[in-house]
């Protein structure tokens, strides 16, 4: 169960976009931007408010990889595993991150809610391969050593 | 006149919306999984592909006919195309046809044979997913889904329930309720229309056949059956009898052969419903409360109203459905006999409906805290049982149901189609009970396939306004209009399934336009050939009001509202 304040926030966002069916995606994008994930209860709530079936709203939310029902960490690291990055050894970088953060294919987010690690199929920056992003910031030509520096820097921000 | 050329035949374009309809008009049964004339066009299954003179291949379901078009439906290329699609569908589909519920009535099986897929070159490496057995009405087996979306569109467009939809995408796509909940956790009303359109066994009717055989086998159990009006005009379909023919007599005979101890006609209880419901209508009109009165015969509708329009829940008639009235009555009837013979009576109702399987579990349908109807068998299941025994149904003699509950009016029998309940109530309310009145009532506008029908009659100096609606999407629209005050009615008949029980979720599937019409004609023919046409002229019923029912009407025939 989410707190009552979540529903108030949702009402606010719905009011911004208007109560029409076509606003579904912008509304849930804003909710996700605010909470760094899409709380399931809010998806149901938004669907009811817009007069959309819950199953239809769920269909939309699961169609796009970008929406997540799991709370995400403060720093979302997306490692590109597209063809160009893959041949330039993105797997090594991914493995390094898994090891350093204690994550796995099944576990995406660290206990302290600081890091979420995901793979993406292409970031459209093949010239910079292997590439990863932290939130919206691009980190080109990654190496396992640079991963260490990056994590230290991000952790340093928190200290 | 505008025409197109199909396989070198000239075909005039009339008002067909797509090329597929024209192809089917000239007698070519082009296969489809995802095309249903009453649903929106989806164009996903690609089975209806055709080739034009330039060699373009396109789906005929989603192409408008253009004058001068030249198409071929059966070139080597489209043949290969269809075959490949089926092979790919089968590559991730269970192939244990012999043990499948849908064996023999599966479109995928049928088309694999038709297009000539004799081997599948790909391994099935799909992960097995669990079955959803949470609903008493239907079973969802995601492993057998081919993603045609027929169920999704039926649930949303025809029924406005939207319990299921696609989730995820690409090879991960599945049809499921939101958040992969079970059907029981959704607003699913159990109407079974998804199972009707499902080409495979991804959604099937939940079956109780084994329990019935066990009961029949038990010498200490008296198994009595009640047969709903709409079953009789659909059961013969599967035994080479003409569509829409009344095979009630043959069904009674086969139930006796199977070992049922007594067989009754639910239409008797439909007469009873007319009596009780018109009493209630008169009362509400007099007190001017809770109007409009909504009918309560359809459990799919009752559940829909409770979950989506709770503000109208008190407007639903307090009467139980005919099934719900009949079962406690039968138990009451056999009470003393059971005690003296040391037997237990169980009531099996044979219904065109999957939602009835859920209705019997509702506590407001219990009498003295006990479930009245023990099992519901759908038309499909009783057909399967007849086939199991090997009865040659079409060759059976007609037999009559058991007395005293064999006498029913024509009014009670037309309950099986949209407008039937209303017509029966109108007959009850009519002052002069003669043939002319019957004719007049049949032309008041309550008959036919229109989703919303309206009629009115004068009761004393008051005009009683009536609406008849079928299909829950149409119902939702009507309820919104009633809520906004745009329209006003005193009596509203609702049936969840389009065209009423004759097209219920438990009826044999794949009924096209002609079958639908013959079922509707069939049920009106059952009425015109009945000795008694007016529900309130049923002599057995009238007599029982003074004997068996006396003082128990409320307990046996109305829902107990404490629940």
Quick synopsis:
Chain A is of the alpha+beta class and 159 residues long. Chain A is built from 7 helices and 4 strands. The radius of gyration of chain B is 25 Å and the shape is globular.
How large, in whole angstroms, is the Cα Rg of chain B? 25 Å
Mean pLDDT over the full residue set of chain A:
92
Please name the CATH topology of the largest domain in chain A. Glutaredoxin
Distance between the termini of chain A: 31 Å
CATH architecture of the largest domain in chain A: 3-Layer(aba) Sandwich
Gross morphology of chain B: globular
Indicate the percent of residues in helices of chain A: 40-55%
Structural class of chain A: alpha+beta
Order of the strands making up the biggest sheet of chain A: 2-1-3-4
Shape of chain A: elongated
Describe the structure.
The complex is a heterodimer of chains A (159) and B (563). With 159 residues, chain A is α+β, with helices and mostly antiparallel strands. Chain A is 50% helix and 11% strand. Chain A has a four-stranded mixed beta sheet with strand order 2-1-3-4, covered by helices on one side. In chain A, α1 crosses α3 (40-50), α2 (24-35) packs antiparallel against α3 and α3 (40-50) crosses α4 (54-63). Chain B is built from 19 helices and 17 strands. In chain B, α16 (472-483) links the parallel β16 (462-470) and β17 (491-495). Chain B has three domains: 3-74, Ubiquitin-like (UB roll); 123-205, Alpha-Beta Plaits (2-Layer Sandwich); 210-557, Rossmann fold. In chain B, α2 packs across α3, α8 (266-287) crosses α10 (322-341) and α8 (266-287) crosses α14 (420-429). The longest helix of chain B has 22 residues, at 266-287. Chain B is globular, with a radius of gyration of 25 Å. At the A-B interface, α4 of A face β7 of B.
């Amino acid at each position: 169960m989410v707190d009552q304040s979540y529903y108030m926030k949702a009402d606010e966002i719905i009011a911004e976009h208007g109560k029409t069916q076509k606003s579904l995606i912008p509304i849930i994008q804003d909710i996700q931007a605010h909470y760094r994930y899409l709380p399931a209860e809010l998806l149901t709530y938004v669907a009811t408010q817009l007069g959309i079936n819950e199953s239809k709203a769920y269909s939309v939310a699961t169609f796009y990889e970008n929406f997540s029902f799991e709370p995400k960490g403060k720093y979302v690291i997306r490692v590109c595993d597209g063809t160009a990055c893959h041949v330039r050894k993105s797997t090594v970088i991914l493995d390094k991150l898994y090891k350093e953060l204690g994550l796995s294919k099944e576990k995406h987010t660290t206990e302290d809610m600081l890091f979420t690690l995901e793979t993406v199929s292409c970031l459209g920056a093949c010239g910079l391969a292997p590439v990863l992003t932290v939130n919206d910031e691009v980190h080109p030509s990654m190496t396992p050593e640079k991963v260490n520096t990056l994590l230290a820097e991000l952790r340093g921000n928190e200290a | 006149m505008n025409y197109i050329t199909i396989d070198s035949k000239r075909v005039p374009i009339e008002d067909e919306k797509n090329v597929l309809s024209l192809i089917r008009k000239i007698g070519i049964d082009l296969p489809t999984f995802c095309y249903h004339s009453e649903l929106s066009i989806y164009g996903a299954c690609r089975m209806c592909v055709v080739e034009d003179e330039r060699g373009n291949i396109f789906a005929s379901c989603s192409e408008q006919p253009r004058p001068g078009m030249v198409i071929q439906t059966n070139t080597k290329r489209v043949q290969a195309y269809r075959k490949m699609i089926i092979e790919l569908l089968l590559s991730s589909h269970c192939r244990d046809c012999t043990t499948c519920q849908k064996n023999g009535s599966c479109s995928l099986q049928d088309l694999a044979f038709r297009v000539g897929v004799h081997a599948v070159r790909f391994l099935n490496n799909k992960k097995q997913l669990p079955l959803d057995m949470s609903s008493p009405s239907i079973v969802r087996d995601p492993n057998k889904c081919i993603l045609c979306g027929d169920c999704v569109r039926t649930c949303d467009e025809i029924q406005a329930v939207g319990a299921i939809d696609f989730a995820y995408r690409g090879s991960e796509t599945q049809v499921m309720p939101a958040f992969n909940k079970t059907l029981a956790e959704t607003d699913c009303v159990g109407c079974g229309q998804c199972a009707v359109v499902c080409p495979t066994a991804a959604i099937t009717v939940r079956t109780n056949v084994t329990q019935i055989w066990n009961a029949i086998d038990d010498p200490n159990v008296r198994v009595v059956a009640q047969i709903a009006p709409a079953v009789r005009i659909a059961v013969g379909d599967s035994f080479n009898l003409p569509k829409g023919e009344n095979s009630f007599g043959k069904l009674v005979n086969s139930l006796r052969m199977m070992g049922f101890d007594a067989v009754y006609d639910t239409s008797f209880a439909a007469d009873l419903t007319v009596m009780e419901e018109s009493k209630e209508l008169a009362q509400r009109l007099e007190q001017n409360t809770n109007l409009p009165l909504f009918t309560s015969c359809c459990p799919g509708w009752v559940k829909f109203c409770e979950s989506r329009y709770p503000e109208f829940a008190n407007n639903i008639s307090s009467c139980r459905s005919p099934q719900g009235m009949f079962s406690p009555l039968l138990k009451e009837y056999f009470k003393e006999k059971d005690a003296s013979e040391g037997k237990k009576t169980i009531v099996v109702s044979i219904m065109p409906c999957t939602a009835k399987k859920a209705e019997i579990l509702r506590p407001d349908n219990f009498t003295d805290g006990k479930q009245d109807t023990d099992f519901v068998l759908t038309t499909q299941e009783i057909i399967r049982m007849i086939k199991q025994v090997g009865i040659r149904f079409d060759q059976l003699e007609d037999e009559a149901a058991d007395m005293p509950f064999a006498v029913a009016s024509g009014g009670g029998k037309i309950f099986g189609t949209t407008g039937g309940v209303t017509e029966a109530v109108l007959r009850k309310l009519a002052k002069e009970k003669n043939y002319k009145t019957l004719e007049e009532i049949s032309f008041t506008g309550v008959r036919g396939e229109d989703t919303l029908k309206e009629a009115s009659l004068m009761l004393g100096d008051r005009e009683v306004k009536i609406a008849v609606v079928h299909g829950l999407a149409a119902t939702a629209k009507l309820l919104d209009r009633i809520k906004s005050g745009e329209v006003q009615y005193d009596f509203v008949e609702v049936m969840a399934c389009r065209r009423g029980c004759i097209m219920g979720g438990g009826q044999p599937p794949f009924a096209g336009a002609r079958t639908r019409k013959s079922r509707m004609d069939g049920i009106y023919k059952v009425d015109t050939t009945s000795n008694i046409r007016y529900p309130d002229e049923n002599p057995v019923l009238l007599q029982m009001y003074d004997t068996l029912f006396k003082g128990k009407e409320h307990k046996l025939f109305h829902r107990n509202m404490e629940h």
